[in-house]
């Protein structure tokens, strides 16, 4: 009883803290648009521009392959197993995609890196996705920029990546513009096998749940790559921040937008208010935490507690997945299994890896929705244990 009351009280408080919602709108396509660059807006929006340029300060790179040794095995069969660096600021997207070390044949890799490509898709349609990478690179002016979130009308929030609009279906109208802006890139996606177009594996908010996404990949028999030693057709999940934060179990999804927690409200020397475009962790921002301090007295410690717990389990289950991969590879090489027996283990491996990856590659390390994270890790562990149980000793 008391707990319910406290929750209701908190919800009421939260709604009053919440900023005025701005509904998402979507761009026109086939319109012959030219991108107005960030530099061209520098004088008109001097404060926003200066904060945007601060993203160059977020330049630390961590080599995930060194940090998480199990991924050399778990991702075998795709280049992420050798080249997988942590993300850094929006300022570096073009540089980072050009220098990944992973092969990239097509321009579709630029989808979340530069507005020059976004505009090209909007002008030319899905055929732009198969332009050769190097040809596209020669025309690129800048990394993630104003056009991506505002089209050529800074201040208005416009979805320019229309695969998001398609994937939201009727729910698009209910989506807040400040969350939609980020959901254009911080999502799980795949390249449609025929057109190579970036596509999201769902058709509304409800089918965004990992269970439904997996069901979709099962139905379409989709795989990103096949592990060469085990023959498992694997799915490579990519940064599902939007799906995780907006998913079932999220404490704050109805109250806070992505921008509320990652973009400070600031004021310039003349006291004029503006929104900082230096995308930061709320843990590193005193200004953002002014809206949290009523309920979280030590946000940094609270977040770290959630992350440490998730991290420990993610490593433990990832290590089990590594063991499974090696044991299944041995099973394939031996002559002790029928093809049906191997396929039963492969299926469990494919699904277990999907749920594990959904957590491993999500950038908040569980802080966005620890209930969903726990649910995914539980499912991953159960599937992997079951698969290990089918290995003959
Ligand atoms: C056009 C695509 C795009 C949009 C839109 C976008 N991002 Fe990003 N974001 C990226 C990419 C790509 C990276 C990784 C950059 C790299 O390492 O090269 C990134 C990185 C980040 C990082 C840094 C992560 C780290 O580990 O340091 C934060 C924080 C972030 N984004 C938050 C946001 C927020 C909040 C929004 C919405 C207001 C948003 N992003 C919208 C593409 C985008
Ligand atoms: C209620 C606050 C809150 C909201 C809303 C929120 N986040 Fe976060 N986000 C966090 C916290 C806390 C972290 C972990 C920060 C850390 O480790 O320092 C985080 C981490 C991230 C990171 C990794 C940043 C880094 O520096 O490594 C990205 C990217 C990100 N969020 C994107 C999003 C996107 C996209 C949305 C909207 C779909 C969103 N966030 C909504 C609180 C929030
Ligand atoms: C990754 C998405 C993203 C990018 C890139 C981006 N913005 Fe924004 N912008 C936002 C969001 C989110 C808001 C907050 C809107 C709100 O609070 O209603 C915003 C607000 C604004 C506003 C309204 C005034 C204010 O300060 O709140 C202006 C003007 C603006 N942006 C200009 C720009 C310019 C100029 C650039 C390029 C240098 C840019 N934006 C790049 C997402 C973005
Ligand atoms: C009205 C009270 C209230 C405010 C204001 C509030 N929170 Fe929370 N927050 C909660 C409650 C309650 C929980 C759930 C705690 C739990 O699960 O033990 C929570 C959980 C969280 C979590 C963990 C989510 C998860 O899934 O485990 C994060 C991260 C978070 N809050 C960040 C923030 C940030 C950042 C702000 C400010 C922008 C903020 N909160 C403002 C009450 C609040």
Give a nutshell description of this structure.
The chain is mainly α. The protein has 18 helices and 8 strands.
Largest sheet: 2 strands, parallel
Q: What is the CA-based Rg, rounded?
A: 22 Å
Widest β-sheet, arrangement of strands: 1-2
Question: What are the secondary-structure elements, in order, as H or E?
Answer: HEHHHHHHHHEHHEEHEEHHEEHHHH
User: What class would the helix/strand composition place it in?
Assistant: mainly alpha
The rough form would be described as globular
Report, as a whole number of angstroms, the end-to-end distance. Answer: 52 Å
Descriptive overview:
This protein has 393 residues and is mainly α. It contains 18 helices and 8 strands. Strands 1-2 form a two-stranded parallel sheet. Strands 3-4 form a two-stranded antiparallel sheet. A two-stranded antiparallel sheet has the order 5-6. Residues 1-20 have low confidence and may be disordered. The protein binds heme C (4 copies).
């Amino acid at each position: 009883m008391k707990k319910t009351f406290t929750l209701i009280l908190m919800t009421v408080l939260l709604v009053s803290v919440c900023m005025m919602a701005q509904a998402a709108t979507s761009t026109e396509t086939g319109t012959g648009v030219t991108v107005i660059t960030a530099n061209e807006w520098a004088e008109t929006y001097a404060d926003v521009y200066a904060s945007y340029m601060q993203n160059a300060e977020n330049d630390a790179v961590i080599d995930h392959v060194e940090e998480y040794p199990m991924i050399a095995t778990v991702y075998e069969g795709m280049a992420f197993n050798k080249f997988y660096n942590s993300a850094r600021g929006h300022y570096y997207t073009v540089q980072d995609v050009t220098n990944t070390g992973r092969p990239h044949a097509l321009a579709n890799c630029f989808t979340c890196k530069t507005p020059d490509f976004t505009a090209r898709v909007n002008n030319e349609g899905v055929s732009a996705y198969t332009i050769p990478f190097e040809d596209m690179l020669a025309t690129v002016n800048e990394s993630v920029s104003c056009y991506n979130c505002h089209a050529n009308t800074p201040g208005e929030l416009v979805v320019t990546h229309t695969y998001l609009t398609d994937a939201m279906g009727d729910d698009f109208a209910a989506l807040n513009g400040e969350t939609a802006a980020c959901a254009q890139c911080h999502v799980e996606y795949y390249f449609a096998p025929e057109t190579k177009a970036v596509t999201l594996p769902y058709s509304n908010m409800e089918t965004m749940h990992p269970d439904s996404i997996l069901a979709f990949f099962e139905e379409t028999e989709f795989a990103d790559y096949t592990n060469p030693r085990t023959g498992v057709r694997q799915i490579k999940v990519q940064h599902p921040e939007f799906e995780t934060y907006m998913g079932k179990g999220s404490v704050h999804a109805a109250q806070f937008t992505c921008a509320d927690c990652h973009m400070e409200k600031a004021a310039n020397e003349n006291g004029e208010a503006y929104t900082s475009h230096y995308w930061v962790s709320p843990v590193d921002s005193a200004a953002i935490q002014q809206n949290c301090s009523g309920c979280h007295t030590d946000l940094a410690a609270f977040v770290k507690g959630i992350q440490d717990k998730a991290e420990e389990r993610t490593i433990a289950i990832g290590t089990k997945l590594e063991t499974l991969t090696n044991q299944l590879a041995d099973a394939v090489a031996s002559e002790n299994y029928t093809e049906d027996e191997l396929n039963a283990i492969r299926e469990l491996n494919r699904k277990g890896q999907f749920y594990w990856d959904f957590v491993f590659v999500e950038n908040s390390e569980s802080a966005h929705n620890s209930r969903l994270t726990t649910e995914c890790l539980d499912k991953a562990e159960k599937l992997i244990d079951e698969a290990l149980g089918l290995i003959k000793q």
